[in-house]
Amino acid sequence: MTSSENKSYSALAGVYDHIMWTVPHSAWLSRIERDLRDRRKRPRSVFDIACGTGLGTEILFSRGYSPVYGADLSPEMISVARNKANTAGSAITYFVQNAEVTSLPDDLTVDLVTCLFDALNYVTTLDGLHRVFISVAQTLNVGGVFAFDLNAPYALRQGLFNQEDAIGNIRHVWKAAWDEEARLCTVNMDFWRTHPDGSEDVFSEQHVQRAHTKDEVRDGLRGAGFHEILFWGNYADKAPNSKSDRWLVTAVLKEKPE
């Protein structure tokens, strides 16, 4: 989660894993690892920013990365992540932290920074996106890789977030509104959770995502010291096209920003 979300994901933290269990974090990370092999990179240390409840972070740990760090702006999401790590015995260090000013203790740096499941779309200004890139560059070793994904403009324009579903005892209805001029998608989310005794919790959240352009992302990364920037459409092997709903982006840190 990033700074523009404010209180988003506070109430959602308690049911997040339940409704997101089908999200293919493992497949996404495998695609990133293939890119790393193609680049002849063998990262060991990793920092998963905007990590939420640690769904992807736990997979990174299980694949042998060490040390593994995770950070998210939501204390509630990090609390869930820490509890899961403690239960599983996963040696992951979690922080409550804004992705726009991310850092590790004692100026530690890592080989790989990841940011998955369209977290950077929640950075709703171009300046904020640039701050994330600069912050990540300061946290990476020179030659390290930054890997992240974004909801592409096509997905947000086409109402990707308009959905209604029931998973177990939790039902949700999401309705999205698109602002073409601002390139912002506002999503009103309503949730109903039914308990065994038949009682029901009802809660709502509002999320806002920005549709960043490829030029904005590429220019921002270059300005932060990255090069060898690659875009993949929908985690496949081809560059994005006009109907790609998600982009995977990988970039190598050439030099630290001033």
Question: How is this structure best summarized?
Answer:
The protein contains seven helices and eleven strands. It is α/β, with parallel strands linked by helices.
3D architecture notes:
This protein is an alpha/beta fold and 258 residues long. 27% of the residues lie in helices and 33% in strands. It contains 7 helices and 11 strands. The chain has a 7-stranded mixed β-sheet, with helices on both faces. The chain has a 4-stranded antiparallel β-sheet with strand order 6-7-8-9. α5 (126-139) links the parallel β4 and β5 (140-151). The two termini are 26 Å apart.
Strand order of the largest sheet: 3-2-1-4-5-11-10
Count all strands and give the number: 11
The Rg value, from CA coordinates, equals 18 Å
- Overall shape: it is globular
Largest beta-sheet details = 7 strands, mixed
Q: How far from one another are the termini? A: 26 Å
What is the count of helical runs?
7
Structural class: alpha/beta
Helicity range: 25-40%
Instruction: Tell me, rounded to a whole number, the average pLDDT.
Output: 93
Low-pLDDT residue spans: 1-7
Proportion of residues in β-strands: 25-35%
Order of helices and strands: HHEHEHEEHEHEEEEHEE
